[in-house]
Design brief:
This protein has about 350 residues and is an alpha/beta fold. It is about 45% helix and about 5% strand. The protein has a five-stranded parallel sheet with strand order 2-3-4-1-5, with helices on both faces. The longest helix is centred in the last third of the chain and has 19 residues. The protein starts with 12 loop residues before the first helix and ends in a 19-residue tail after the last helix.
């Protein structure tokens, strides 16, 4: 959202915000794109713009009027934001029990990763009440694909027959996961990756070393690159990864989660396949990648990694699972006789 200085939270949001304010026609907007480019920030900034009382018409909220200050303080009476409990801390938006998923039972219960039906019903009731100020009401749901089936159906009726001046912003990285009937009732806004030079300059300003390498590692998604850097992943580790996997050396993966490891190996598999076919690499410098002419071996490895990705959040033994993944990577990247089409990959299942 825009602060008192009038600056946007991410510099590349300016054209997207201006486009949303210029073209918005209906009562619901679906903002979607890769998860690390700023849907959350754009959603809040758009909501702030709709509620802004400055009347300047500058294509963005002023950041200084009473309404903007209340949005900044997360206390605007006409703004309701729904995010899963599990994401509230990372997004910096702690919700009241009436907005999010209210705690149930023991305090030791794991935070929910879903937007549940109780929260959506609360949002529907919120949208039907009279606004406290003059700009109407706004409901933000992020990420919208986290609504379970019952919650999505509860929202559908309101999207079909909106109440009063209420407007909805649905933000998501996987629009195909939403009900087609919800997508059809929203004005879709597809976000593209920001310009690489602008994103890399922003990352460098945040203190990220070798920002271009980290940006490529994230697939051009600067917020993901910043998160990785803050978690301790550096460009040197990333650049050493292809050679280490060829040797079967798991050292560069020390401290990584299974999900992070699988993601990195999927990117390595993608790039090796690209350079082997004469196409440019996307995530790693192409000159440091092995050429693997055995297409079937890469296909088998890609399938194994896809299976591993589906299991990545399970309570597996991380050390043993990563060792297995590295062994499979070494086999897939090694020169020599191809793997037979009937060969079964080594399982990544490990005891917890």
């Amino acid at each position: 959202m825009v602060g008192p200085d009038g600056a946007l939270p991410l510099p590349w949001l300016a054209p997207w915000l201006a486009d949303a304010l210029r073209t918005q026609r209906g009562h619901a907007v679906l903002i979607h794109g890769a998860q690390g480019i700023g849907q959350w920030q754009l959603s809040l900034t758009l909501a702030q713009a709709w509620l802004c009382e400055s009347g300047q018409g500058a294509g963005r909220p002023c950041g200084t009027c009473a309404s903007c200050r209340m949005v900044q303080a997360r206390s605007h009476p006409d703004l309701l934001v729904l995010v899963p409990e599990a994401l509230q801390a990372s997004l910096g938006w702690q919700l009241a029990e009436t907005e999010g998923d209210a705690p149930e039972g023991s305090s030791k219960k794991q935070p929910s990763k879903e937007i549940k039906v109780e929260a959506v019903r609360g949002a529907v009731a919120f949208a039907q009440t009279t606004p406290a100020r003059d700009a109407g009401k706004v409901v933000v749901l992020h990420p919208a694909e986290r609504m379970n089936g019952i919650a999505a159906n509860a929202l559908l009726k309101t999207l079909e027959e909106p109440a009063g001046t209420a407007r909805f912003i649905l933000s998501c990285a996987a629009p195909e996961s939403l009900l087609p009937t919800i997508r059809s009732r929203c004005q879709a806004m597809a976000l593209q990756l920001p310009p690489a030079a602008e994103a890399a300059a922003w990352l460098a300003a945040q203190g990220v070393a070798q920002a271009e390498v980290m940006l490529a590692a994230s697939g051009g998604q600067p917020l993901d690159a910043l998160e990785w850097a803050r978690e301790g992943l550096d460009a040197g580790q990333w650049l050493r990864l292809p050679a280490a996997m060829q040797r079967g050396d798991a050292a560069p993966l020390a401290g990584w989660t299974i999900a992070r490891t699988v993601d990195a190996l999927q990117k390595l598999c993608h790039d090796v396949a690209c350079v082997s076919a004469g196409a440019p690499a996307r995530y790693f410098p192409g000159e440091g990648l092995p050429r693997q002419p055995d297409t079937m071996r890469l296909v088998n490895w890609s399938r194994e990694l896809a299976r591993a990705a589906r299991q990545a959040e399970h309570p597996l033994n991380a050390g043993l699972t990563i060792e297995t993944l590295v062994t499979r990577a070494r086999h897939a990247l090694a020169a020599g006789a191809p793997a037979g089409p009937g060969r079964r990959g080594v399982s990544v299942h490990s005891p917890a």
